[in-house]
# Entry
Amino acid sequence: MSEEESEIEILNEACKEISLKNKLTEELKAKLQKKLPKTFDEALQLVYAKRVKKYIFKPSCRVLWVVSGRKDEYQVIPEANFCSCNDFYFRVVGGKKKLCYHLIAQKLAEALKIYEEKKLTNGEYEKMMEKWRGKIKKAVC
# Structure
């Protein structure tokens, strides 16, 4: 297992443990700070500041995760370990690291159940996806 793969696996295992215990223990926090030294604390700050949003679209039950970072809002797709931020595009896609702090924040927020949840209609889903397509296209071009 490479250093980068273990980073994702450690985070996923930690999130499972957090979900089961319904809290982030000091021991687990120390482990994550050691494994993710620059990004964990930033991510945790976003969680406690309630800057992670989960949009649920009805009646389809589609889910869209959005994390408000320092400069903008970013779409996160946790199942694909994807984020629409520039850090993800340049460093993660570029192979320098596996996760940006927005992805870490989303995974922690979901495990801790600390996020803003908004229910919207399927019609609003299309509008939001157009917004995100535009942002992603702008970031890559």
About this structure: The two ends are 34 Å apart (CA to CA). The chain has one domain: 3-140.
